[in-house]
Amino acid sequence: MTKSIWHNPDVDVAALNALQARTMAANLGIEVTGFTDATLTARMPVDHRTLQPHGRLHGGASVALAETLGSIAANLTLEPGISIAVGLEINANHVRPVKDGFVIATANAEALGRTTQIWSIRITDSADRLVCISRFTLAVIPATQA
Fold first, then answer.
1. DSSP one-letter code for 55
2. Which residues contact 116 (CB under 8 A, 6 or more apart)?
3. pTM for the full predicted model
């Protein structure tokens, strides 16, 4: 049996989505959809909010999805009120265009250190074909610095 990486292993997906109200994530339609003991998953529509002028998923929207999901996941590993995780660096390789439907992102922890975390976020289309792969580094800081 795999040990959960989450501070509270009973992740409340509805509560996570409610926290995103009135944020960029909500404006882009990003929605957390599920989790395992070691991954967090979300989806984002490919529509007028996330397309570039050529009718394809905007690379910036993919990066916003990756950073949103990675930030949520990183903070779920930390004790609330004690530490928070904030983004330091993100990169993305855009592999395949998507013109409609949804893209699905899955965040996997690569390193959960005391002062930094590194996450890989894989974004796929509805046929599970790779659309974008992102690596996201976060700083873990005291919640009082927020």
1. S
2. 88, 137, 138, 139, 140
3. 0.96
Q: What is the CATH number of the domain that holds 123?
A: 3.10.129.10
pLDDT at 1 exceeding the cut of 70: no
Which tens digits make up the pLDDT trace of 2-20? 799 999 999 999 999 999 9
Cβ neighbours of residue 14 closer than 8 Å, sequence gap 6 or more: none
First to last CA, the chain: 35
Residue 124 lies in a domain: yes
Q: Catalytic amino acids?
A: 67
Host H or E run for residue 123 = strand 116-124
Interatomic CA distance for residues 113 and 108, integer angstroms: 14
Within its chain, how far is the Cα of 1 from the centroid?
A: 25
* Cβ atoms 104, 41 nearer than 8 A: yes
Burial of 54 (0-12, 13-18, 19+ CB in 10 A): exposed
Residue 4 lies in a domain: no
